[in-house]
Design brief:
5-stranded mixed sheet, 18% helix, 8 helices, alpha/beta, 29 strands
Length: 440
């Protein structure tokens, strides 16, 4: 750890939430950039500005299926007195050569096709007889079925202004413009833009690989039968999903029994595919809390700077926490409490910012806002602890859901916010203004 030495560690020091988070963010560093193919870069963060090499669109083109014309030739055109033009050919998207449109002429043109030389505007096919001489039409016949449509005459029933239904070259982006800025997360629209300007690869920070594991001999995998004293492992599923939601590539390891040697070997096996390790359970003060025992010697014990510091935080839920680095690559590890609500709240406060830091993002925190507390009676909070209550946020109001117990996971599924009660507040009245962390 980079800053643990500046704090008094051990049982006597109660860390604040801010201190613990600052220690984590001072230690975790963004991953080194790599060059990736476009689809492999989805969800990654750009490390450099991307400049447009070719304007979009790269040429003037039609926004409609219709006819490319000269403005003077259709001036005053109406259904009673249509402009009669000679069709000199077709212009299709991707066509290398276009016919020249001279006075009294028109070229049948398709959406996205280049505006041919001589033409000044496009009239939609619905404004014409489609070359059939039978009044307005609703569309064109397929070229393969009616090749004669590229010749003959067309009657145009309406005038068109210059550049009508023409997409100008560079009207989307111009050559030399900045297409995307460094720090942008690449989603589907950004991937599409990169492809549109001809970029096949891009330089990004890769998505962090996060390994999540639960500890506890009482844990059983979903779909298996529960024995006496057993419960289903929910933490590893919730936190693995949360890691993916934060932008990571997450790997879930099945629950590890309360055996220090088994846990130690499992963690060492996972180091090869982890940029960040997250454990849940086994960090309190019980006789079977084996995470402390296991992590005391995991990895390379002689590696300077490695080691896990177990702490007590002035928060509820989530008082017991562990943080440090392990192994020859100094892989960061966050050890979270085992109670479901404690582990999830701890993830949101500490692990998510660590993941976003590994990604190279500047803003690593969930958004916060101020809200009016909507409750029937005053809420109590332990002195000296920053409390995080599950709640819902809507229209400027924050409403707690469920009780304060750290095992009450059902209410967590209905919460979209955390209501923050400061350390110095032991009672908060209905209608008071509170800070809210938005989870959605």
């Amino acid at each position: 750890m980079s800053s643990a030495a500046t704090h008094v560690t051990g049982q006597d020091h109660l860390w604040s939430v801010t201190e613990h988070l600052e220690d984590i963010l001072a230690t975790v560093r963004p991953l080194e950039p790599i060059e990736l193919q476009l689809l492999d870069a989805q969800g990654c963060v750009l490390v450099e500005d991307v400049t447009v090499p070719v304007s979009l669109p790269p040429f003037d083109n039609s926004s409609m299926d219709g006819y490319a014309v000269r403005v003077a030739d259709v001036a005053g055109a109406s259904e009673e007195y249509p402009a009669v033009l000679t069709v000199v050919g077709d212009v299709a998207a991707g066509q290398a050569e276009q016919p020249y449109v001279g006075p009294g002429e028109a070229a049948r043109i398709m959406t996205g096709a280049p505006l041919p030389p001589g033409a000044e505007a496009v009239v939609p096919v619905e404004w014409t007889d489609g070359g059939l001489g039978e009044g307005a039409v609703s569309g064109m016949r397929a070229h393969s079925a009616a090749p004669e449509g590229a010749s003959g005459q067309v009657h145009v029933h309406r005038p068109a202004e210059a550049r009508a239904h023409v997409r100008a070259k560079g009207s989307d982006v111009k050559a030399g413009d900045r297409a995307l800025a460094a720090g942008t997360i690449l989603g589907p629209p950004q991937i599409g833009l990169l492809a549109a300007i001809g970029r096949g690869t891009v330089r990004v920070r890769p998505r962090p690989r996060v390994v999540v594991m639960s500890t506890g001999s009482e844990l059983v995998q979903p779909d298996e039968a529960l024995g006496s004293g057993q419960i289903y492992d929910s933490n590893s599923f919730a936190l693995c999903a949360a890691a993916r939601d934060a932008g990571a590539i997450a790997y879930r390891v099945g629950a590890v029994a309360d055996d220090a040697e088994t846990l130690r070997s499992t963690i060492e096996d996972q180091l090869i595919r982890a940029d960040l390790l997250v454990t849940t359970g086994g960090v309190s003060v019980g006789a079977y809390d084996v995470v402390k025992e296991a992590l005391s010697s995991v990895g390379d014990e002689d590696e300077e700077g490695s080691g896990i510091d177990f702490r007590k935080l002035a928060m509820q839920p989530g008082k017991p926490q562990g943080f440090g680095s392990i192994g020859p690559e100094h892989t960061p590890l966050l050890a979270l409490p085992g109670n479901p609500v404690s582990s999830y709240v701890s993830f949101e406060l500490f692990v998510r910012p660590a993941i976003r830091t590994l990604m190279g993002l500047k803003d690593v925190h969930r958004p916060t806002t101020r809200a009016t507390l909507s409750v029937d009676k005053a809420l109590t909070s332990p002195a000296g602890r920053r409390q995080f209550l599950r709640g819902t946020y809507a229209e400027g109001k924050a409403t707690p859901v469920g009780g304060a117990g750290s095992h009450l996971i059902a209410a967590l599924a209905h919460a979209d916010a955390l209501i923050v009660i400061p350390e110095d507040d032991t009672s908060v009245e209905p209608g008071a203004e509170v800070e809210v962390v938005l989870l959605g």
